[in-house]
Amino acid sequence: MTDRDADWPCAPDEHGRFARYLQDLAVVRDEDEADLVVTVLRDPDTTMAQSALVRHLDNRAAQLLPLSGGRFGDWSRAMTMAIGDLDFLARRLHEWNLLRSITMAEPLAAKEVTTASDWFQHKAAETATSPAVLAVLAAVGRTRRIRAAASRRLHR
Q: What is the pTM of this model?
């Protein structure tokens, strides 16, 4: 970010930087968010930086998911550019896009649901309203917990 001090963040340990990143990411303006994500990714502790960012992606996506219009798509594209080819972050963002497709009742191939991560399947089993998605998860969800959650929601 252009208004940051050269020594930002000032915390010498990763715990302090992690907390500072989460604070700053929680209040960043939309137009500055991608720049802040890139800044966080420059941290020498890549595991900590990506951990802070996945938490931010989860929080921000959950906020934007129910909104109509193009805000989620615009945000997702900006985040895709900011995180680049970092596998874990890219996959999580992709799976938030899958959840968005489910939420918006867009067509979704069963294979996308069955090959997605446990995190996605669990989240979809808890939140999906689509009988087709719930049926797939109830039948072939990766874990017994996912199958049971989907089955309960399907039969309500």
A: 0.88
Residue 18 burial (CB count, 10 A): 20
pLDDT at 25 over 90: yes
Nearest residue to 95 via CA among 74, 110, 117, 78 = 117
> In whole angstroms, what is the distance from residue 66 CA to residue 54 CA?
19
Q: Do 98 and 125 belong together in one domain?
A: no
Domain that includes residue 150, residue range: 109-156
Residue 30 tokens, joined:
């939309």
The token duo for 121 is 């399947």
Task: Please indicate, yes or no, whether residues 73 and 8 belong to a single structural domain of this protein.
Answer: yes
Cβ(61)–Cβ(25) below 8 Å: no
Supply the pLDDT for residue 107. Answer: 82
Torsion 65-67-68-69 (CA) sign: negative
Question: Rounded to whole angstroms, what are the CA distances from 54 to 13, 26, 141?
Answer: 19, 13, 23
